Amino acid sequence: MKKWIIIIIAVPALLLFLIIGGVTGGPPSNAETLSGKLTTLTASEVADKTGISEERAADVIKILNYVLSKEEFSVAGATGVLAVAERESGFDPKAVNTGGGVAGYFQWSGWSSTINGNRWGQAREKKLDADIELELLSTELNGVYSKSKEEMQKATDPAEAALFWSEHYEGVALSDGQTKAEQLKKDAKKWYDLFKDTLSGGESSAETRDGGGVSADGVPEGYSLTKAIDTSGYVASSYPWGQCTWFVFNRAKELGITFDPYMGNGGDWKSKAGYQTTNTPTEHSALCFAPGQAGADGTYGHIAFVEQVKSDGSILISESNANGLGVISYRTFDKAAANQFTYVIGK
């Protein structure tokens, strides 16, 4: 949040002892309950690689895992947010700026005064606690700051994500010297480079296939399908003919996989009750693009079918209506890009 004096950090000796004990005793408390995309790095490893304390490294991991899994941020979005948290609080959930009336990871207003507003008023408890602060983050992201959540879910550039978060979530104008734009962009890239290849996702296994299968017109060299696509038997009852949803529903059925006839628009499939989602690229799953992500429609999102996951982490997808209504086309994504998406597992 926008601040008016230097941040003052106050940690009583006894509390410091308790915090350190918590760090050395195991992972952050919410780490065990999260599912989805999580980093495999430990606090010790992050501390060694970045030069920050192990205590603060545990907070870095806590924030990262939370926004990746709970709020489904892309890797670029999540690491852009880390850069802002580093600027705001140094990843200390107990960081306080008394003059600005702000406190916490993201220096929410309303802590000691309401000179800058009262965002702490939405917290379940006014307490400088990491879990309470992350819950407050979710409350805001699923309320008045939903636009920030949407942008972080589809972000592909960590530097741009950091600038957007700083301006729209923190409320600091890009022209304001407090933005520290160049340092912010540098830090976003630093965190992205550290974490981008360290993520594991969800409960789905990361089975791969490099060879076998069949080729088809338009399939990029080096990739293949397990079965040729034959749209002659595709039905168009609940999903309009030629749309992305029509294709994925029928392509899955062609391979013995079932999705509900009413999954919603392409970007809605990941929210359908009763279906497992993961951030691990999974062959024969549905790749759910958020609105605007990787060229998806800005309002409705997009859905595609994962035809192949290779051992190098790259994926081949098939899709309809990317190049025209009813036109079936193919795209590939490398490992870094593929790990940013949400995959819906059929039945």
Kindly describe this structure.
The structure is a single chain. The protein has 347 residues and is an alpha+beta fold. It has 2 domains: 8-201, Orthogonal Bundle (Lysozyme); 231-344, endopeptidase domain like (from Nostoc punctiforme) (endopeptidase fold (from Nostoc punctiforme)). It contains 10 helices and 12 strands. The chain has helices spanning 13-25, 43-50, 54-69, 75-89, 130-141, 146-154, 158-168, 181-195, 244-254, 335-338; strands at 8-9, 37-39, 95-97, 102-103, 108-109, 199-201, 277-278, 286-289, 302-309, 315-320, 328-333, 342-344. Strands 7-12-8-9-10-11 form a 6-stranded antiparallel β-sheet. It has a 4-stranded antiparallel β-sheet with strand order 1-3-4-5, with no helix packed on it. A two-stranded antiparallel ribbon has the order 2-6. A hairpin with a 4-residue loop joins β3 (95-97) and β4. The chain is elongated.
Summarize the SSE layout with pairings.
Blueprint: E1 8-9, H1 13-25, E2 37-39, H2 43-50, H3 54-69, H4 75-89, E3 95-97, E4 102-103, E5 108-109, H5 130-141, H6 146-154, H7 158-168, H8 181-195, E6 199-201, H9 244-254, E7 277-278, E8 286-289, E9 302-309, E10 315-320, E11 328-333, H10 335-338, E12 342-344
Antiparallel strand pairs: 1-3, 2-6, 3-4, 4-5, 7-12, 8-9, 8-12, 9-10, 10-11
Helix pairs in contact: 2-3, 3-4, 4-6, 4-7, 4-8, 6-7, 7-8
